[in-house]
What we know:
The protein has helices at residues 15-20, 45-54, 68-75, 93-102, 148-158, 177-182, 192-195, 200-208; strands spanning 2-6, 27-33, 59-64, 82-86, 106-111, 129-133, 165-169, 187-190. Strands 1-2-3-4-5-6-7-8 form an eight-stranded parallel β-barrel, surrounded by four helices. By secondary structure, the protein is α/β, with parallel strands linked by helices.
Amino acid sequence: xxxxxxxxxxxxxxxxxxxxxxxxxxxxxxxxxxxxxxxxxxxxxxxxxxxxxxxxxxxxxxxxxxxxxxxxxxxxxxxxxxxxxxxxxxxxxxxxxxxxxxxxxxxxxxxxxxxxxxxxxxxxxxxxxxxxxxxxxxxxxxxxxxxxxxxxxxxxxxxxxxxxxxxxxxxxxxxxxxxxxxxxxxxxxxxxxxxxxxxxxxxxxxxxxxx
Length: 211
Ligand code: DX5
Ligand code: ZN
């Protein structure tokens, strides 16, 4: 099980030290918001550049924005592991996914909780990562929406040949992580649970489970 630490729950007054506490994670998950697609603002290119300069941990960039290609251009020189955009954010999903891939970056597509899986039918073959939101995007520290389990199982049933990354984001903790893993999820985004834990190493062990 891969883990991405969601920076939204880091201590912004001590960002470097806060990230050093969770350095065992596989990715830093960076939620880029524009105040339009979601009602919040977060990180811009200056923060992303500094992250890239100070840490080797690969970036998993989650764009919660309108006009995602504008933000792709802002992030493209940071060699992120993934750039994920929302299916709901653009009428040109196919073009946008291929724009990212043509930059040599792995492309992901995300769905909000109420967006049906059929939105992926004609793009799934082209993507490297699917991100199913288990909260409504915009804020850290929300509660996991229980119906997400059914959606994840339905995803695996609908796309049995999909071999890319299946990522879930929102409200994940040591209690629901093993259940998500049993449903076939292989990348968990974790914010509040990880950053508020007294011992992040133990938190990571609990999230990953035993192999
Ligand atoms: C929500 C973000 C998530 C969020 C996860 O809009 O996409 O990445 O920060 O944080 P927790 O684990 O606190 O729900
Ligand atoms: Zn996210």
